[in-house]
Amino acid sequence: MIRGMAADAGEEFDQSLRPVQGQLSYLQIPAIDVQRSAEFYARVFGWHIEHPHPGFDAPGLIGQWVTDRPPTSNAGMLPWLHVESMEDTMKLVRAYGGEVLEHPTPDGPERLLSTVRDPAGNVLGLVQLVSG
From the CB of residue 102, how many other CB atoms can be counted at a distance below 10 Å? Predict the structure, then answer.
């Protein structure tokens, strides 16, 4: 009986992890130096890196760094990543080879926004929720 319940709970758990229509599920990030880019994302955002492969696990997302696509600095989609502390993240971005493009500015009363460039030149948006 307990075994059946565990199987049912496991099935429910597996179903809850299934992606839904329109959810971003895999991301390829252009890189010039895969190891440098991997370290940047691991140190700044806490992503898990799959060494020696160029892959990663991020919250709700998997992907890899690729060298056969040019970095996107001023065109295409702009991914926005949640950060807990804009101040701490700005320090980490600079320390690991990134560049702050736009310093944090309020976007209404509920969040701060900033843009940064990763070591390969890709532009990222950062979002910090502000407690009211």
Answer: 12
Q: How far is CA 77 from CA 7, 43, 74, 110, in A?
A: 41, 23, 9, 23
What angle (nearest 5°) sits at the alpha carbon of residue 30, between those of residues 29 and 36? 90
Token pair recorded at residue 1:
């009986």
pTM: 0.81
pLDDT tens, position by position, 14-30: 555 677 878 888 999 99
Task: Tell me the CATH number for domain 23-129.
Answer: 3.10.180.10
Q: What pLDDT was estimated at residue 17?
A: 63
- When the pLDDT of each residue in the chain is averaged and rounded to a whole number, the result is 87
Nearest to 58 by CA among 77, 81, 85: 81
3-state secondary structure of 120: coil
C-beta separation of 73 from 91 below 8 A: no
CA distance 48 to 56: 6
Domains of the chain, by residue range, sit at: 23-129
Q: Torsion over CA of 78, 49, 21 and 19, rounded to 10 degrees? A: -160
